[in-house]
Amino acid sequence: MVDLKLTINGTSLNKAFDALEKQFADQSRRVWPRMEPLVRRQVQENLDTEGRAGGRKFEPLARRTVEYKTRHGLASPILQRTGVMYRAVLDSVAHAEMRAGEMRVIVPGKSGQVAGFHQRGTRRMPARRIFQFSDGQKREQGREMMKAYEQIIHELGFK
Q: What is the three-state SS of the chain?
């Protein structure tokens, strides 16, 4: 291991960089409010297009499920029968966190458990990824994130 210590006029640059890194990390939570409307729109598009907007269409429903929905007049899109989970997922995006450039979304309550099953899939049910983003959506998120970080850097006094 190499331990490099830099000083200028007796001032440790290591300490200055550590302080700057901490200050920047503390500021990163300010990124999410700027990202939230975009990610919320993208998640809604993913739900409304049954995954197509996110780059991977949801697996079709099982034949028995389609027959049940037909018999009971439930012609809703996949994952939207009552609208409870749909609303819970979209509301959860508003309360997500951004840490070290990673988005953390927690869908509360029973809707969160159900959303988790759909996101990951189960032995008997294919994954229908609500939080899957296409390359174009990721690029759009990256551009928005860069704008937010550039604003933070500017506000911290860097040009």
A: CCCCCCEECCEEHHHHHHHHHHHHHHHHHHHHHHHHHHHHHHHHHHHHCCCHHHCCCCCCCCHHHHHHHHHCCCCCCCCCCCCHHHHHHHHHHHCCEEECCEEECCCCHHHHHHHHHHHHCCCCCCCCCCCCCCHHHHHHHHHHHHHHHHHHHHHCCCC
